[in-house]
Amino acid sequence: MNLLPILCYHSVAAQPADLIRPFAVDPTMFAAHLDLIAERGLETPTVSELLRLKADRDPRLARAVVITFDDGYADNGSAALPALHERGMRGTLFVTTGLLRGGAVPPAAPALAPYMLSWAELPDVRDGGLEIGGHSHTHPQLDTLGQRAAREEVTRCKTMLEDALAAEVTTFAYPHGYSSPSVRRIVRAAGYRGACSVKNTLSSPLDDPFSMARLTVRADTSLGEIGAWLDRRGALAPPAREALRTRGWRLYRRTRAEIRRRPGRDPGWVV
Asked: Which of 67, 192, 90 lies closest to 134, judged by CA?
């Protein structure tokens, strides 16, 4: 069974926002990650290309790694994209539309706004080699929301991105990595063709195309860990079915959100 690493980055910055600091990778370290990929001769398909490769059972999957970014930090365009371009690599950027600067409505998280991409920059980022996917509008835990609110988060994000890019947006990533069967159905019905979770495991050919496993790259993730993941080691394959522990954790988060009357908003914006 060909396991595949799908790497999940956030910010690539030496001086990131405090909220994202534990998940921000220094640009020098990010370049070292890309060099490991280049040394192994691995291909870097986008998420939509990965879906096609999986559907075709393409043998190139055995020599691939997928690079993704969540949220839409400005340094994804100013730091990550040039490093990718220099090595002929591509990636996928999952954008939280309510966090971007320069829109008709002020950003939903003012403290993060100076660190985020602007709407005007999105087409250039896309044209430079980063596929644009959806990541909700306000970054809630979608599986703690009601059906109507979850649908609004998913569809509003897609509509806004497609209006800005004048192109179809076909991939999605769940904020915080959290989804549920009903949330996945909403994403599918919205017209997305696939979606990424987190799970912190290697991706398997048996992955649900609407819940593909990723590995979170943190500020303290070592170069050795990255190398092991690229070699299909150091992380497990995802379970074929949702674990009982995952269901229990979802129930706990929903209950906590209801008690606090803040569905989707615990523990915060990032990840």
From this structure: 192
267 pLDDT band (50/70/90 cuts)? very low
**Segment 12-48, tens digit of pLDDT:** 999 999 999 999 999 999 999 999 999 999 999 999 9
Residues 6+ apart with CB under 8 A from 23: 9, 10, 11, 216, 217, 218, 219, 270, 271
Domain boundaries, the chain: 6-260
CATH topology of domain 6-260: TIM Barrel (3.20.20)
Other C-beta atoms closer than 10 Å to the C-beta of 87 total 13
Q: Is 29 helix (H, G, I), strand (E, B) or coil?
A: helix
Compute how many other C-beta atoms are within 10 angstroms of the C-beta atom of residue 111.
11
How far, in Å, CA of 187 to CA of 47, rounded? 15
